[in-house]
Each structure stands twice: as structure tokens, then as C-alpha cells.
Amino acid sequence: MPTPSERSERARLEQEQFRQRQHQSPFHTRVALAVMFAVAIVSCCWNLDWKHYLRYWLKVPPPYSRYTEFGFRALLAWVFLGTLFQLVSDILDTRRSAADYGWAVLFGVAMAGAFLAADGYLRWQLRRK
Questions:
Q1: CA–CA distance, 129 with 126 (Å, rounded to integer)
Q2: Cα separation of 54 and 4, whole Å?
Q3: Contact 103, 29 (CB under 8 A)
Q4: Is residue 67 situated within a structural domain?
Q5: Cα(first)–Cα(last) distance of the chain, in Å?
Q6: Residue 3: φ, ψ to 5°
Q7: Total domain count for the chain?
Q8: Which of 36, 10, 33 is nearest to 100 (CA)?
Q9: The domain containing residue 93 runs over which residues?
């Protein structure tokens, strides 16, 4: 019967091996890149039409204070820049084939399209009221 320390060491080793297999999996790398592409597109949309999203997240009607608008814009810019940094660093750190990039872009655009469709529906609902 292994000791508790041997069991915990074995469990830690198996978790590390699982993480390595997962990060080397083509499916995992494609999905991770696709999600980052989608988040980059969505955060870009947030930055382009920030007044619209400010109304979504703050239930107080406009006009908003200058500090509120500045803080919201700074938060959205921080999210966008962080996403771009993560995307570029992942592209530079991980070797992928052209098919991986094509699949990731296609899936990322589909996820961003789903977001834009839901956003369009919510905009339509706001105009009806």
C-alpha cells in the first residue's frame, strides 16, 4: 500500500501529464485559438460601440458622468489589449499548421457571429420598447 505522500506525488504527476497531453492535442490548440479570435472580435465590437454596451451593463439611464465613461472605456480597452497580447503570444509560442489556423479562424468567426446575432436581437428588442 503506497504512503499518502507517494499517492499525492503520483496524482500530481498524472495531472501534469494530462495537462501536457491536452496542450499538445490538435483539437485543444485549435479551440483555444478560436476562442481567442472570437474574444478579440467581441472586445473590438465593445470598443467600437461602447455607449451601447454601457447602456447594457449600467441600468441607470444616460447621461453618465465623465468618470463613469472614462472608467468603462479604460476597462474595455484593457480587455481588448489583453486579448490581443494573449492572442499574439499564443500564436508565437505554439506551432500550428495552416489548417489549424484556418479551422480556428472559421470557428472563431462563427462564435463571434453568434454574439453579433444575439446583440442584433437585443438591439431590435430595445428599439421596440
A1: 5
A2: 53
A3: no
A4: yes
A5: 69
A6: -75, 165
A7: 1
A8: 33
A9: 26-128
Per the domain annotation, does 88 fall within a domain?
yes
DSSP per residue over the chain, as a string?
---HHHHHHHHHHHHHHHHHHHHH-HHHHHHHHHHHHHHHHHHHHHHHTHHHHHHHH--SPSPPPHHHHHHHHHHHHHHHHHHHHHHHHHHHHS---HHHHHHHHHHHHHHHHHHHHHHHHHHHHHHH-
Mention every residue, 6+ apart, whose C-beta is less than 8 A from residue 57. Answer: 72
pTM: 0.74
CA 100 to CA 93: how far, in whole Å?
14
Whether residue 20 lies inside any domain: the answer is: no
Cell numbers placing 17: 501529464
The pLDDT tens digits for 80-119 are 999 999 999 989 988 888 888 998 889 999 999 999 999 9
Do the domain assignments include residue 76?
yes
Report the candidate in 44, 112, 48 with the shortest Cα–Cα distance to residue 82.
44
